[in-house]
Every structure is written in structure tokens, then in C-alpha cells.
Amino acid sequence: MLLKWKGLPVRKPLLLRGARQVGKTWLLKAFASSEYEVLHYFNFEEDAALSGLFDGRLSPSELVRRLELYSNKAIHPETSLIVFDEVQQCDRALNSLKYFAKDTPQFHVAAAGSLLGIHLPDSASFPVGKVHFVDVKPLSFVEFLRASGEGRYADMLDDHPLYEELPVTFHSHLIDQLRTYYYTGGMPEVVAAHAAGAVPSEIRALQQSILDGYELDFVKHSGRLDAAKISLLWKSIPSHLARENHKFVFSTVRPGARARTYEDALQWLDAAGLILRCSCAHHPISPLNAQRDLSIFKVYVFDTGLLSAMVGIEPFMMVQGDELFTSFSGALVENYIAQHLAQLQRNPLTYWKRENNMAEIDFLIERKGVIPIEVKAGANPKSKSLRSYRYSYAPSMSYRFSLLNFRKEATLHYLPLYAVHRLFDE
Predict the structure, then answer these.
(1) Residue 120 per-residue DSSP state
(2) What angle do CA 236, 248, 279 make, to 5 degrees?
(3) H-helix or E-strand spanning residue 269
(4) I need a labelling partner for 218 at 20 to 30 A (CA). Which of 97, 117, 224, 369 fits?
(5) HSE-CB of 57 using CA atoms within 13 angstroms
């Protein structure tokens, strides 16, 4: 996507969004290293004096002159990448992006920042329509394979004919790798440590450091909101997912709690990119956005590894067969699929539940109609809910993710959990 942006004939400044520590800075520096002769990197959090360069007129030619003088490096269009990091710390730097888009598109300008989703709605300086957004998310399972020295298996999965069974040896190895991914997740620092040989306790220490950093963000960036409410709601997510239907209920946060008390805190976590909200649709009819009941929803953590750290999954469970997949009421598995669906599609996450009935389908997607997706933690293919749904709505196809191998039965398609990225391939 970054290469495509670089080659655009009319180029707006690039703005990377994503939760803290998902690798936005690393990505921009690696992109500059491979595609540009010179990186001009300016971090507004590390260097408070930078903001003073944006006082006065925001003419791009004048700003480039000031930046060159400040860094003692010449900035050349086409061969230089200008990066404004932690740009949320300087509203005028954020505002300057629209002038780069309008007056000097020949310059390659990129920006990134922590908690941009929190800061942008309150910023009168945001350059509406003048930036090219790129969302940065945790590494997917296939990306995890490539980063962990298992790229040959990622290539095999990419090229494998859909619904043709994998050899048992390869299938078993990928399930073992999936167990590891449930534990590590896709945060770049954690994956890098795993690839370098870190033991599970070291992985957990890194994840806890990330979680501690988020707690500090609640205090530092919550503004008028009560940071304690944000923290309490954040820590309650595993309790919601431990419920039989995983539905988010405000009274689980604190007995007697009402939506109006905690809705702002939930929106803060959503804007910070730390949660994935999945709303209920009682009537699975296209367009799904018109059927979603926003008052009934589930909440997932944006990275499954961080969820496993919040729950306290012990390292020994990684080698205990299917125990890791079936403990915690299958919530890790469901969270894993939610995380990947959020990467694979732009549509909001949606699930189905029959009114006044226990029947429920984990996720719905739209592709030539509404398609149900069932998620099974183990290898048991039986499901009353999916059978009920298919009988009632006769979808053109249905998907079941589980520990079973690839296979297809008429309109019911079985995909292994490790092959979720192939969902939209047919």
C-alpha cells in the first residue's frame, strides 16, 4: 500500500493510524530505507522545539526551508521522505499537511501519531480530505509465520487449492504455530522477541509492558473523561467474553452500572483502536449496516495475544493439546477471528442472534448476500445454531472455522482456523 501511495500521480500526505506500539514508526522508517535516498524524521514528542518551526505562515516551501535549516539536511522532492511522528503533539504540523497536499504534492510527506483517533475529533486543524489514511494493525497469523522464520508455510497456505486437504503433518504443524500465535499475538515487538528465541515468560513481560503503557495513556490522554472508568472497562473485557454468549453488558463492569455512565469510556477505547466492537443483527438482510442493533454488541481486544495476557493464560497451556483452544469459553478463538475479519474487510463486525432464542452465529459478512461464519474452538463440527440459520435463510454458502482440515460439503465450507486469510479468495 505504501508503494502504491508513492507511485500516485497526485499524492496527498500519508497519515498512519493505529493503536500505540503496532509498528507505525518502524514501518515508515523501513519504507524510507528501501524506497528513498534520505529520511527526514521529525518526532514532536521527543523534540518539543520542533513545534516552534510551525509558528507563523504554513507555506510548504517556507516549512521545508526551516526543516532543512533545523536538521542541516537538504530535502529533495522525489528522493526524500519527510516524516512527522507523534504529529498529534502539534496541531499546526497536522494542519500543514493540507498545504503540502494543495501546493506542493511533489514532496513525499508522511505522518503518524499515537491515539490519533482520540485527538483528531477535537482538532480544528485536521486537514479534512487532504490526507491518505493507512490503518496499521497487529500482524496477522500469516504475517506472524513470515516474521517467525516459517515463511514457507505461509507461501504454502497462500498457494494451496481451497478445500483440498493438507497433509496431516503440515496441518498439525500449523495448528502448533496457531497455538503459539494465540499466546504471542501480533504486536511487532512481541513477535520480534519470539522470532529471536524469547521464552514464554519473556513474551508475557513484553505484553505486560504494553498493557501498562496503555494504562498510562488512559491517564495522560483521557481529557475530561475519568481515566479510572476507562481502565475499569478495559480490564472488564475478559469477563464479558467469559460469558456464555460473550455479549457486552455494562453491569459486568460494575454492579448497577448504566450505559450512559460508561459509554464515553467505551468510545474512547474504540477511538484509540484498542477494541473491536461487533454489533448484533437480528435480521440477516443486505445491507447489514441497516440491520445492526447498536445497543447489542460484543467487545473484542484488537490483539489476541494481549487478550491472552489480560486473562493470564499460562505458558504450559501452549503444549497441552487442545486445552488452549477450548479454555476461556472459546473466547480466544472468537477474538482471533474478529481480529482478522477487521483486517480483511472495511465493514463493521456483525453477528446474528435470533430474537427470543438461543440460536446465534458468531459473524456475518456480505458477499453476494449475507454469509454466516461459525467459529469452533476445536474439531467438533456439530452446531444447532448454524443448522437453524441455514434452514431459515438458505444462504448461498456458509463458513465454519475450526481445527478441522480444509473440506467442502455442498454449500458448507470448512476452513482451518490458520487459513482465515483465505476467506475472501473464492
Answers:
(1) G
(2) 135
(3) helix 259-271
(4) 97
(5) 8
CA distance 401 to 135: 26
Residues 6+ apart with CB under 8 A from 57: none
Contact 148, 173 (CB under 8 A): no
CA distance 163 to 415: 7
CB-side exposure of 205: number of CA atoms within 13 Å?
7
3-state secondary structure labels for all residues of 317-337: HHHCCCHHHHCHHHHHHHHHH
Measured CA to CA, the distance from residue 205 to residue 141 in angstroms comes to 21
Handedness of CA 90, 96, 101, 104 (dihedral sign): negative
How far is Cα 254 from Cα 76, in angstroms, rounded to an integer? Answer: 56
Write down the architecture of domain 2-135 according to CATH: 3-Layer(aba) Sandwich (3.40)
Radius of gyration of the chain (CA): 23
Asked if residues 300 and 249 have their Cβ atoms less than 8 Å apart, the reply is: no
User: CA triplet 93, 97, 99: central angle to 5 degrees?
Assistant: 110
- Return the C-alpha cell found at 200: 514464554
* Secondary-structure breakdown of the chain: helix, strand, coil percentages, each rounded to the nearest 5: 50, 15, 35
Strand partners, 40: 82
The DSSP bridge pattern shows strands 363-366 and 360-361 to be: unpaired
Cβ proximity of 83 and 39 under 8 Å: yes
Sign, CA torsion 112/115/118/124: negative
Q: Can you tell me which residue has the cell 483517533?
A: 117
Q: From first to last of its 426 residues, what are the pLDDT tens digits of the chain?
A: 899 999 888 889 999 999 999 999 999 999 999 999 999 999 999 999 999 999 988 999 999 999 999 999 999 998 999 999 999 889 899 999 999 998 998 999 999 988 887 776 555 566 667 889 899 999 999 999 999 999 999 999 999 999 999 999 999 999 999 999 999 999 999 999 999 999 999 999 999 999 999 999 998 888 777 899 999 999 999 988 887 778 888 877 888 777 788 899 999 999 999 999 999 999 999 999 999 999 999 999 999 999 999 998 876 665 555 554 455 658 899 999 999 999 999 899 999 998 877 889 999 999 889 999 999 987 777 778 899 999 999 999 999 999 999 999 999 999 999 999 999 997
d(CA 370, CA 361): 12
345 CA to centre of own chain: 11
Q: CA geometry: angle at 220 spanning 214 and 224, to 5°? A: 115
For the record, the C-alpha cell of 103 comes out as 501546493
